[in-house]
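Readers of this paper often ask what the protein records in our data store actually look like. Such a record has a labelled line for the sequence and another for the backbone structure tokens. Nothing more is needed to write down the fold, since each code stands for a local backbone conformation. The remainder of this section carries one protein's record, kept here as part of the documentation.
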Amino acid sequence: MTNKIFEGGAMPGVGPIHISEIEPTLKALEKTLGIDLLNNTLGSVGKKQFSGDIDVALQIEPDAIPEFMDKLKNVPEIIDMAKSSVIMTKVKIVGYDANKESPDPNKPRTGFVQVDFMPGDPGFMKVFYHAPSETESKYKGVFRNIMLSAIAAYYQRQDSEEKTDDGRPMRSERYIWSPTNGLVRIVRTPVPKKTGDGFTKKNNDEIISDPIKTAPEIARELGLDGPEDLNSYESLKASIEKNYKPELVQKILTSFADNGVVKDIGVPDDLKTESLADKHLNRIKTLIHRI
């Protein structure tokens, strides 16, 4: 087994795992490690027929990680291991069925799957990394988190009238959605230049509230109906359209659609709008066809 330092990414020689193979594979690891893995999986694991990898929340102190990695080396099913911000392992799939072919030809099955152990608070990580099932949403969990970030950025936001030269408020009291702190209230101010002449592009965020990390509390703080509203992009959109004023909804949806990740993956059809230029062009094309 190698023990390389990775910045992230995939282990070599791994592939998707079928939903029927997840439980026996994790139970084999549990037997040796003596910790609960099945109840601490994150994201979409176990919610669709094939998972590209398995993310598991790991409650562990930083100074105990080296000892835990030594323990992983003695697990027969673990073929390889690497360390970045998470502990990445190449694991032999227990009960591997070669007849269950990957739906993605670019990601063939290999009999091995990547299992990432992610240090942190399992309770909050299950909230943050939640991903809806295929029947609940058309979109990945990342869309849900981007929507939550957009909601946090605008809900009950208080900006000063005074602004910097590039248009930022001199003081903005607002929420942020954080992978470490959950939902927190902050005061954001621009960072002055050392010369004293104007401001840098950076902002300073001062946390002014206790972190909120449970789904019921997050939903209540954001003025939503309940924790089920946090499930997906669709449920969040439906909830803000029900509970927020139209002007606020429009700011949130515009911010979401302008996000770079959303643009790369593809803006949801229900947010696509035809620009004025496109309307004129389509109108001209229609007239030409009629001539």
In short: Confidence is low (pLDDT under 50) at residues 2-8, 274-281. The chain has two domains: 3-128, 141-271. The radius of gyration is 23 Å.
